[in-house]
Amino acid sequence: MKIIKCRDLGFNCDFIATGSAAEADSVIQKMLVHIKEAHEGLSDEGLADIKARMSVLLSRGCGCGAL
After folding, report:
1. DSSP readout, 7-36?
2. Contact, 3 vs 15, CB < 8 A?
3. Which entry of 9, 29, 56, 67 is 20 to 30 Å from 45 by CA?
4. What is the mean pLDDT of the chain?
């Protein structure tokens, strides 16, 4: 199971994107869609930083987003 919490990315938001380990790209896409809709005003640079953070979180063994 792969989990990314919006709070783990620095937002004051309870949204959580989940999926199986094989669906890691789908989890990232779900979170990006949410961020673009709910947290408007991010620059391309800001989105690139968030994508990098998501990759780190999903690469952790447990996939829970805990740092």
Report:
1. GGGT-S---EEEE-GGGHHHHHHHHHHHHH
2. no
3. 67
4. 89
